[in-house]
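Quick start: read one record
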Amino acid sequence: MEQAFTRNFCIIAHIDHGKSTLADRLIELTGALRHEEMGQQVLDSMELERERGITIKAKAIRLHHKAQDGELYRLNMVDTPGHVDFSYEVSRTLAACEGAVLVVDATQGIQAQTLANTYLAMEHNLELIPVINKIDLPASEPQRVLEEICSVLGYKAEEVLLISAKTGEGVPQLLEEIAKRVPPPSGDAQKPLRALIFDSRYDAYKGVIAYLRVVDGRISKGDRLRLMGQNTEIEALEVGFFAPGQSPAPELVAGDVGYIATGLKSLKECRVGDTVTLTVGGATEPLIGYQPPKPMVFAGIYPTLAEDYKDLREAIEKLNLNDASLTYEPESSPILGHGFRCGFLGLLHLDIVRERLEREFNLALVVTAPGVKFIITLTGGEQLTITNPDEFPPPEEIEKIEEPWVKISIITPSVFIGALMELLTESEGKYKHTEYLGQSQTQSELGQRVRLEYEMPLRCMLTTFYDQMKSRSRGYASMDYEFLGFQPARLVKLVILVNDVPVDAFSRIAPPQSAQAVGRAIAAKLKEVIPRQLFRVPIQAAVGGRIVAREDIPAKRKDVLAKCYGGDVTRKRKLLEKQKEGKKKMKLIGKVDVPKEAFLDILKLG
């Protein structure tokens, strides 16, 4: 097929605005799958994606559409995730496309990720087609959302389409607009081969499968290829496109989106953003790639049973083959034993990885409190990068601490502004900007919709911030954030001791002014969840060498006088003294097992 009739586009939107349902309708209308082969969210093939109703990995598919002008168009479509944790998937996808369908929910209007994805698409110079979805719902307000799109994003009313991805209303017109408005791919099939890898996954039989967009030249099965960034030579064992499964083809030419089977054994050898060219007569200049995703959140993952450590290591290695954004390194803890310190893109990514490890590999795990990366300059001038609070140096050796900051954007009805500003101030946020977007007629009692912009430490966004935001806004607020950089901070290490033994998994990094409150909250919660022993167990929170909070779990009392019925009182005293001595001895040699539930409860504290 001629390059002039190829269209590469993706679907972008906020979470749950109907991207995957729209992808289903486009697949059905173009006849890529028969009606009996269709299910809900065809492209969301992962079990977790179907359960949670979210897209985690971007998916590509090739469609064919006979337009009203009589021409047959080849449409390469990519469905992208909506959650902020997976925005790196969106940015990679945009580089492989010339156009994007921007989906906005007719009941919710513009949300935080709608704006973030729009700006990303504009940075990549994509042709945007705004679409208002869910117009079939009784609560939909297409006119209000249309005005919002025109005022906030600057589109004309006639450029915006009204559709229902569920019923299919307006979707045929969208197909026509994609063929008409999205430009054909540039590139020359006669030039030396240059193809950009935008995703990859591991296949047990074919090695690494590289998803790529061919910019110049052509790839055929059996070609000897070179990865320009890694300088690795490979052979194209298989070449093909997505329909939606892998469908082998004789070749891919300039403008096509497809895959090659490389036979490589590790994703590290085939990096996303690398340029593929021919070994003989190949290109000399690589394409502009991507920055590799940087982990933002770190947590320790340990097996509940020590003998499962080997299984956990194998499971993480296998998971890392299909998720290159997951980083890991071994670590050990006096209480939890051997485990791994893992890096994630955000809290949802952490939750998905934990659930996949437990479900797909049948492991019982303990996950420590999530933290961020700190850059510490020592008094001697040496710089350390620390992801585990337990590695924090003593205060007297530290000259400067730097922590990551993010720009956070929250869209909310104006009635919740006070509660959310209070939450952001409590979370050390710095106010930057307020913007009024528009008003909903059905929710007029909630007032106009407002976008709040703050800057705050990433550390304050971990654990309960998102839940608090949703609860204070009755679920109406939506959030987006982007990494700003590292800024100086005043922080101390809070150590939790159970029976005078430090439990490194409970260690926290906190500002000096809130360390005591955090210590008291953790100690009080541990007092509730750690079972009583036959001796008194002290729980302490310490900053440096100073105890800032303490709780005691009283001893479980065994009634040693039960068998004494009558007789001399000295006999009873003798038994009580003997019990007292036994408790002292037990305290010296006794070990307190901290139950798994304690780690989960401390996570919920925030």
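The mean pLDDT is 79.
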